[in-house]
Amino acid sequence: MNTGRKGNIIIPRLEVLIANKKLLKALTELDKLLAKKQIALNIFICGAFAIELLGFERVEPTIDADSATPITNKEVLELIKAIGEARGLGSRWLNDQASTVAIPEGAVSRASSFGSWRNIKAILMDRSDLIKMKSAAFSTRRDETLKDWEDLKLMKPTAKEMYDAIAFLRATRSPPTNATRRIIEEFNETVDDLKKLAVE
Amino acid sequence: MRQLTISRSSPSNNFSSLANYFGIAISFSDSKPVTDYADIERFFLQCTMNFNNSRTAEGILCWIDEYGHLISPSKLRKLIKEGVPYDKIVLGGILEFMKARTVGARPLSILKKYVSKRAISANLIEGPRIRSAAPYFKKVGLLTPDFLLDKKKFLRPSDHVLRSCLELRYRCLFGSVLNSDIASALSRNPQLNAYAAAKLTGHHKANVFKNFLDIKAGLLACRVGKMPLE
Fold first, then answer.
1. Which tens digit of pLDDT belongs to each residue from A76-129?
2. Model confidence pLDDT, tens digit, residues B50-94
3. Spatial distance between the Cα atoms of B182 and B36, rounded to a whole number of angstroms
4. B63, B72, B77, B163: least buried by Cβ within 10 Å?
5. What is the DSSP code string of B10-47?
């Protein structure tokens, strides 16, 4: 991992910033337009974009940013869509799909400030919370994609981090008591797969 | 897990650069702007060797689902015969995918003898046990998740791709694969002669010679008349 940390502010490596130039430029444009309209926007960056900003190389994320806080202001949504269309990023380059899933307790207080925009206040999810979120996502969508497992592998979670992530998974994704045997076995298999990712 | 040959050479014609150029929306760290002629079929064959991770795999499949109908099976066959590297088993899986999704107006069956399958199934991408494998890859003995194929996530909007990618735009405009490739190559480099254009685009020399002057004249007329073809 290559990243600079000053206080509670994350400073990603230059190469990471260059790789994400398109997204960062779009965010800067959005900030300017929000300033004109005097609208403030809070985003809580999570997902693969956050992992890359934390300094992990070869995440190779799709070109979009996930926010764990909802983006509901219609004017903001229209601006996001317009910027995405003009820049060839599509309408979902900044989205709040992650805002519908449970986030770990205290995640906001552990987050770091990111960027120096005027009207966008961005915070970056902490590594330990990203590991929890990615573990939960792996459990939910492992039949459709392995990207969460790959991201976790890249982050090399410690045994403690994985223990906490599994506790979060059990608290938020455990099958109901009347679930079929197959569902319970598959859940246990996922827990075992996650345990294997822990690096001592 | 199967070991795939990773064909990530350095400059602007490496897989990452071409994937972005042709519209796959993944932030590759080694991607560079593409300034030379980019060959669609050579890229397609490169794709077979770049199923390295889940996102790239889904990106490639989304791209084939969107633009696969523009690919020429006969040109693919010619390139394969000439020794352009590709992965036989993955190509088999991709052809099954194209068949299942009814991608491609052109006959894919001519490629059947250039594909292969595994006797014992194995994960295509490194990872845990695949519980619900994609049926198209399973047919050739490769196990992958059954990807959602979220094109809005994995592809740049097609109007943007067609605006910036000459080679795909000409394929859409012209019925002829040869004409569109030669026009793309000449648009990049008007000094090309017929022989060099044939070599660059991978088409038969005789066919290129037959059409070359017409294509060149057509492009010149567009340029002089400031017609918005390029």
1. 999 999 999 999 999 999 999 999 999 999 999 999 999 889 999 999 999 999
2. 999 999 999 999 999 999 999 999 999 999 999 999 999 999 999
3. 13
4. B163
5. SSTTSHHHHHHHTTB-B--TT-----S---HHHHHHHH
Q: What is the pLDDT of residues B109-124, one digit of tens each?
A: 999 999 999 999 999 9
Chain A residues whose CB is inside 8 A of the B25 CB are 62-64, 89-90
Of B146, B156, B164, the CB nearest to A90: B156
B26/A63 touch (CB, cutoff 8 Å), yes or no: yes
Instruction: Tell if the CB–CB gap between A60 and B146 is shorter than 8 Å.
Output: no
User: What pLDDT shows up at residue B221?
Assistant: 86
The mean pLDDT of chain A is 91
Closest alpha carbon within chain B to A23 = B27
Long-range contacts of A158-162 (CB under 8 A, 24+ apart): A158/A198, A158/A199, A158/A200, A159/A198, A159/A199, A159/A200, A161/A127, A161/A128, A161/A131, A161/A198, A162/A131, A162/A135, A162/A194, A162/A195, A162/A197, A162/A198
Residues in A 105-134 with any Cβ partner in B closer than 8 A: none
Question: For residue B26, which phi and psi values (nearest 5 degrees)?
Answer: -125, 140
**CB-based contact B29 A193, cutoff 8 Å:** no
Q: How confident is the model at residue B22 (pLDDT cuts 50, 70, 90)?
A: very high
- Using CB atoms, pick whichever of A89, A90, A145 lies closest to residue B147: A145
